[in-house]
Amino acid sequence: MMTQMTIRGLLFDPYNNAYIIILRDEDNSDMLPIWVDRSEASAISFAMENLAPPRPMTHDLMKTILDTIGAKILSAVVTDLKDNTYLAKIHLLYGDSEYSIDSRPSDAIALALRAEAPVFTKEEVLHKQNSEEVARWLEDLKPEDFGTYEA
User: Fewer beta carbons below 10 Å: N end or C end of the chain?
Assistant: First the structure.
């Protein structure tokens, strides 16, 4: 079974010098934090803010190619958690066929945002990651613990 998620935030984690994409379900009962680097955070931030860079970023180019050939992005799905690494798939419709393409979650999310496609996570992934531990970690953080995102 899958749960639809929305991006609730993009935060900077100064302890790991990385960014965190915060995915939450509709009821705010499940949360999935995904750590990404600066370039991935930038690609997601541009899409979240509907900013158009002077030249196409990689995800903009990918979407333009898919649009040009008539392929439709159906969804992005976070499919698994292995060795502290999240895995994802991008689901496409091309002609009469559906395709499932292996992807990093950040790339799948960046592309889904540009296509206004939903983001899902498999329920097993939500159960694999320790929500209580993550929630406790987030509760203990103070606003000054986070930097601001600069594209």
Answer: N
Domain membership of residue 62 as a residue range: 2-144
Classify residue 151: in a domain, yes or no.
Answer: no
Is 92 a domain residue? yes
pLDDT in tens, 23-35: 999 888 888 999 9
CB 73 within 8 A of CB 92: yes
Task: Work out the number of other CB atoms within 10 angstroms of the CB of residue 87.
Answer: 17
The per-type count for the chain, helices as H runs and strands as E runs, is 5, 7
3, 30 contact by CB (below 8 A): yes
Cα-based angle 19, 14, 114 (whole degrees, multiple of 5): 15
What are 76-112's pLDDT values in tens digits?
Answer: 999 999 888 999 999 999 999 999 999 999 999 999 9
Q: What is the pLDDT of residue 128?
A: 80
